[in-house]
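Memo to structure team: turn this sequence into structure tokens by end of day. - J.P.
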Amino acid sequence: MRLKAAFVLFIVTLASAAASTAPQQTAPATAPSATAPEQPAASCSEMATALTALMRNDARRRDWAELARYRDANRSLAAPAAGEARVVFMGDSITDAWPQPRFGQFFPGKPYVGRGISGQTTPQMLIRFRPDVIDLHPKAVVILAGTNDIAGNTGPMTDEEIEGNLSSMAELGKSNHIKVVLSSILPVSEYHASPTGVPQTTQRPMTRIRAINEWMRKYAAAEDHVYLDYFPATVDEKGLLRAEFSADDLHPNAAGYAAMAPLAEAAIQKALK
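Reply from structure team:
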């Protein structure tokens, strides 16, 4: 019980200290109630133990960018053979799921490597761009990112911040002689939303998706990258992700990936010329 009380006291103290030092907080801290029960004093060792337990249970603090996800696979991946045009697909869950057999074959016969991680945002991908892309020595990289930034998976992100991270990844690729393919953020829809759920079109407004895609198109043209536009093959007459291409209004199914694959292959070949 004493350790539990010490942990609670430590967390409250830590939160109070953070609040008092945060620049956006100007109101004075609320005085403790005179009738509040007195908490037992916590020793330094108890507070250290409590903090260690807290951080041990928080995987994001231990590996926020999930650098460990592909560490072993990267080490075991042989260097590209002479004349091999290796391509790395960098992205989030849409890229992560693509190589799974249930979605069909992932570019059979091609030396393409998937390095997607479900739920990730552009700042996380930027951190792992070196070990998961540059160090694999590909000829090209296909970047598909941004939808989780718009949804706020790792906190609020402006369009400009998303665009800045995409630019940084593209610059890293270019400076390492890697051809860059920037994929449009996929459209979303609201055809499978439950009555009590939040539609994907609310979490990921199409206005923001289209605005970032338009920036991406212009940026790619200016920087001699290839812009991969998935919209013509995936949107319906309402401008949303076609209902038959997804079961959750966000992630492609086998039919969705089948529509995307030839567009990705054409963009890769264009980049490699």
